Amino acid sequence: MLAARAVSVGFTLITVAKTMTSVSATTSSEPPRGLHAAASRDGGSGSPRQRLQKLLAVPGHDPSRVNDLLLLRPDTGQTVCGPKEKSGNRHVVFFHGDIQNFQEEMALQPEGSQWLRWSLEQVALTLGRRFPDRHIWVIRASHMYLHKFSCYQNFVESNMFGAPEHSPYSPDLSAFHHLRALLSHGMERANLPNPLQPQGDSIPSGFSLTLVGFSKGCVVLNQMVYELSGARADPQVSHFVKRIADMYWLDGGHPGGSETWVTDKQVLKDLASSGVSIHAHVTPYEVCDPMRAWVGREYGYFIKTLEEFGACPSKKLHFADEPPCIENHFRVIQDF
User: Is residue 1 part of a domain?
Assistant: First the structure.
């Protein structure tokens, strides 16, 4: 498999090795400064970059498990539909793919500079245009093997290349618990009003979540689907889980030989009955690759099974008339 294709931002290994150089992924426990100092205490009405805040080494459910975050605050000067109290506590969480990193890290690499358009900062700004009335959170993977392969070990058991090993819900190692604690501590660090509490059944009024996984980042969404039934039955996390309104899979891919898309029938039945709106956006780069034909088959099974259980997932094959390429793989972030 490694000789055939590399992970596509979730790419396959050879593609990455030939087109990319290392991208460092350092973390820091130092307090935010520089870029993020421009953000205001309770919101933002300046330029998008002035509303962008970097939060380093934010702890999750286990204080030893940390992730770096980017927060883009909504533009409080922009007119949005609906009461302010309904839009003020809506959040989008994005999980990135391989190679993607902070812009300053990517710029250090001569070959990596061609992909700066898809740095974490640029993705946050893109999502801000897609969801202008929401807080945008970009969660950086806790580890980047060889400075390029994103590993979401804090959310799902993974090998060094980030290929996941999914498991049912566990109160001690839950992806939901880690996400909730990250958001809670991130909100406190950013001085957002009415922050989410790290645990318990108290959820702020109007709080809602949209989860977006791109390429390798989809492994986090898949793990949450495996945990869904158990998490909804646990009063410590069920109220948080029920605030997830939408889940977006964007061209999922990882270096494992299966389970790029969830195919467990009972798990998909739980997802279909959860009330979460399901969205799947793919490109030929992932689902039409003859060297990894199982990806397309699993995607088809994912959609078909959800529909059989009464869900109505929205789905789209982007760039169907164009040759498969990495650029279009990335462009799904812009076009979904």
Answer: no
